[in-house]
Amino acid sequence: MLKLWILTTLLLSSCLSVFVVKAAPVDHHSFANIAEVYTNKLSLDLTVDFEQQQLHGFAEHTLTRKDPKSNQLILDSRALVIEKVLQADDQGAWRTAAFKLGAVDAIKGQPLTIQLTPTSTKVRVYYRTTAESSGLQWLNAAQTSEKQQPFLFSQSQAIHARSWIPLQDTPALRVSYQARIRTPKQLMAVMSADNSKNTERDGDYQFVMPQPIPAYLIAIAVGDLHFQPMSDQTGIYAEKTWLAKAAAEFSDTQKMMDVASKLYGEYPWGRYDLLILPASFPFGGMENPRLSFITPTVITGDKSLVSLIAHELAHSWSGNLVTNSNWNDLWLNEGFTNFFENRLMAEVYGPARAAMEYSLSVKDLQRDIAELEPADTALQLQLTGRDPDDAFSQVAYVKGQLLLQLLENKFGREKFDAFISAYFKKFAFQSMDTQTFLQFLQQQLLDKYPGVVSKTEVEQWVFGAGLPAGFPMQHSDAFALVSKQLQAWLQQDITLSALPTKTWTVHEWLHFINQLPRDLAPAKLAELDAAFALSQSSNAEIFVAWSRLTIPLNYLPVMPQVQQFLLNVGRTKFVVPLYRLLLENPAQQGFAKEIYQQAKPGYHPLTQAQIDKAFAG
Ligand code: BES
Ligand code: ZN
């Protein structure tokens, strides 16, 4: 009897150590009281006013009470003017509700606290956005590609949805939404939703997103947009200039979707369209569901940068279906997505290309790790009291990817594919945190196939600083050859004309430039430029890699091109390092200031904030 009792206890406790479900971590970047009352349905009715550069209208939330005694709803807001709040009781009668905007927190914004009656089931907030609404960029006609009509777009991730919609802005919560958007008649509105109802350009647009999504995936864009289909399921929204070019560049999107669906389960969102933004878009891409937002800087004419599409598409599973529950756990979105992206690239474009991209990513990670505080190089971040935008680095992306690659290498592709598929299936439309993931990993892989990878090893990756020794590398024959040829040139065994650059892909060029010594003599820089016109490269990745080498060496011929680039492009990943390097070069500080003065009005508020920080030192 005693034996049985001991056995049961042992069994139970060993199960418990695996299955114990810890309380979901608190989201330190939201005021929302989701443990008491949460909103799971949102209805927007907004007018887009380009003259005032503001959205105005209402956001209506349907309430679910977890705590029946709760008598207030707390929403997140930032830089919004709240005009009035109504609430509806269970009979559907609307009356005013008392509300209060709390003190401004520099990072989180302001809590909007609404007094509820015991029977209220809905809340309707009438509001306007302001010039400080950080999630919106308003462009005048001159700042667009066609230069005829103004443009508006949102970027809600990480915590900017609250600056254009008063809502519970935490990825721990999901809402379905519908929207009615009124715009000037000649413009077209699109959202991260079903866009198919809007066949007529009439200034009145309707959207439905039936599947529940986190607030950071709510997105809107308004401009002189046109649509071109690429396949049954995919198409391009863009200004005219980009439409055909983008459709050609991204014509493999359907293939990527088919491969992805085969790997990890059917694509869960219906259509997958791409929206090409103006060049001030602060990111490469943003995985807004059904409609990824894409920078035009990846439209190069040779499909060399389409891994960005693989990345945003992969988020349809990692991120949009299974979502990090708070911003410390961003690696669950981005690390999985980078892993998935590289897998897609290997399947669609072959392992040689995927290996080159992998190798370039690892270099980027190592550069970031060298510059970051050690605490910011753990996969799980500690962002309490900090702005999530400030801790953004390659760690969540590439270190996360490498951990998953390590697991795949150790357990074998078959088992690891099955594990990932099971993960997406089990946690579909749910939020995920690091602890829950680690439990699932232990249960589904570590314990199931003991002796392959230890829990301690995984924890070292997740909670420890830096890049663990023995991280998985992918060998690239092509890169090895480029490195060898580069050495031969440096040792003056061969001339530049002997390099087989005619057959180099953009990736080989990037490897070549990244491998060049950082103290190359001016004559060598000039020799390279004369041979390959690197200062004139129209490929943004090549141009920025070349600038990163040459700005610190005060190579003057590149400077006019740097100026042009900074005036035309607002992608943070490119422009912030360029400004930093200019500022670190005493001879170019004045130049940097002059350019910024001119370029600043064209940059997105998020980009401006990052550059301001670089200028502040
Ligand atoms: N979701 C991210 C962009 C993001 C992350 C915005 C965190 C705000 C906070 C998007 O999927 C992304 O990762 N974009 C990358 C592209 C890429 C291929 C790694 C970018 O913009 O460079
Ligand atoms: Zn991403």
Features of this protein?
single chain; 617 residues; alpha+beta; 7-stranded mixed sheet; 5-stranded mixed sheet; globular; disordered N terminus; binds ligand BES; binds zinc ion
What features would you describe in this structure?
The protein has 18 helices and 21 strands. The protein has 617 residues and is α+β, with helices and mostly antiparallel strands. The strands form five sheets. A seven-stranded mixed beta sheet has the order 5-4-8-2-1-11-13, with no helix packed on it. The longest helix has 21 residues, at 351-371. It is globular and about 85 Å long. Residues 1-21 have low confidence and may be disordered. The chain binds ligand BES and zinc ion. Ligand BES binds next to strand 18 and helix 4.
Helix content: 25-40%
SS class: alpha+beta
Give the number of helices. 18
Q: Tell me which ligands are bound.
A: ligand BES, zinc ion
Beta-strand residue percentage: 15-25%
Gyration radius, rounded: 25 Å
